[in-house]
């Protein structure tokens, strides 16, 4: 069971402003039934251009309903400019916090708000240069980037919690990681070039050994082969192939395509693997 | 507030008789059954008695019963043993709707290089036996198919499946965690090689499982250690839980009739009344080939977690296949494998009854649930727009 705050429970059990305003000044529909939550937000302005009323309809879990209810309460009395400043974190804070896995409910609220304001201003929501990264939940690179920046997300899992991206087939995890890396890389260059941590020789050898043990050997063993680490000279990793691998025609491909690739991934991109006679 | 517990496929209450039976083995008779003194020896005798009762429920011999810590351990032990004893074979057959104890293990093995066939199910959650038969190959090391599905209650023809595997010399395992105690199982009358059960699904405590291994089946232990369980599972026996499971199996045997009359009648009434009271609701899974205690109903255009939390206000305990309740973002893999549309899958609720449920329990749900559904549908942006269109469809 989720640990919801009393405030979340209150807004879920007795939602405020449920429904739909007729002839609204701003309207937005975000999310989809496939994604598991969807929100329709409508608002109306008074003569002073302040939000007189806001209503929501939500398909979703308790925290999605509570987030929408909270958002409509927060909107009342604000000008559009003030409303624009509401972030997903503000919605979560208003509710006394949300479980990390449920933060996407507050993001859905913020998205609906932005889109509703855009509809009021008559500007198109479509951002032509954005590309869908997560096909399962229809999340774009721009949305992911914004969530990463606003909420200081550093892992794919956090991005999934906030945007749902990557929560389905998981095929886009690499792309999400690239976006995270890009955000922090540009932040770093703004702060000046970052030093890549330098490995000592001992550290390097230890990591190579661990990587062989964990990532490489089990796969080779499955095909009846094995690998032995002979020496490490600078960035040259000298190995000998054993068992079926020693006589296998494909072992050169295994060496470059698999062993070196794994070592580059887990230890250092500068490594070069060489086979030596056993 | 008294809770109305309709989540017995998740776990069950330890029966009073079961609790009474096990309690003396914590403080009074705490001896180790392997000890040479009579203080431990009396525990060993009690253990043998429990093993006999469990074997009886399954129509098995006591020597075919291995105690484990849970259903997951039993499933892992069975599959890993079959693989270890089929050297050179690289193919595993299972279904898309298995419990994670089998499904995730098989996915893990696929990553390690095994070829895994995950059999599909149709819209009613039933296996295609022709597809199954066609997937059996000389390279197949093990078949693992559940006896009954935990989410829908759909019963699979595992005895037929096991026979086809036996004809080809392929070991067959079934996860019978949901079936045991609810429908008759007679291992003397089938050719299933290994079968898993779990104590806490039939009114014994959590932390005890059984792996049945047919005599003559080659078996390699999963937990290697002491001589317990004839060297097939190391580790000092969980004595109180084993004694509890013995008693629980005895009770289950005695209650089997009631399960099929009383429980089935309650389930059927709950199901038909809810379907009648709530438009655009539908049962997931074949309604004939099904456990007597389970019903899985989808309420279209609303989300399961919200339903559960509102039912919780009345003390009603059930489960959902929605994404939000799982902590993942996708609805239940079982409902997706059945091709249940998202509008339905997110709003699915599983009620699973036991012999301890009463007519009043069912009345409460029949009275309280339809207004909950109505309340959430009024909140749903999809309801108003689709209501007219679908009502006439």
Instruction: Report the CATH architecture of the largest domain in chain B.
Output: 3-Layer(aba) Sandwich
The whole-angstrom Rg of chain A is: 26 Å
Q: Per CATH, what is the topology of the largest domain in chain B?
A: Aspartate Aminotransferase, domain 2
Helix segment tally of chain B = 14
Helix content of chain A: 40-55%
Task: Specify the helix fraction band of chain B.
Answer: 40-55%
Number of helices of chain A: 11
Tally of DSSP β-strands of chain A: 8
H and E order of chain A: HEEEHHHHEEHHHHEEHHE
Percentage beta strand of chain A: 15-25%
Strand portion of chain B: 5-15%
CATH class of the largest domain in chain B: Alpha Beta
Written description of the protein model:
The complex is a heterodimer of chains A (278) and B (393). With 278 residues, chain A is an alpha+beta fold. Chain A has helices spanning 6-13, 62-75, 80-84, 88-94, 103-121, 141-151, 156-163, 173-191, 201-222, 244-247, 251-266; strands spanning 26-32, 37-45, 51-59, 132-134, 139-140, 225-233, 236-243, 272-275. The termini of chain A are far apart. The model of chain A has no long low-confidence stretch (mean pLDDT 86). Chain B folds into two domains: 4-10 and 257-383, Alpha-Beta Complex (Aspartate Aminotransferase, domain 1); 16-252, Type I PLP-dependent aspartate aminotransferase-like (Major domain) (Aspartate Aminotransferase, domain 2, 3-Layer(aba) Sandwich), CATH 3.40.640. Chain B has a seven-stranded mixed sheet, sandwiched between helices. In chain B, strands 9-10-13-12 form a four-stranded antiparallel sheet. The relative contact order of chain B is 0.15. Classes of the chains: A alpha+beta (278), B alpha/beta (393). The interface between A and B is medium-sized, with 34 and 29 residues.
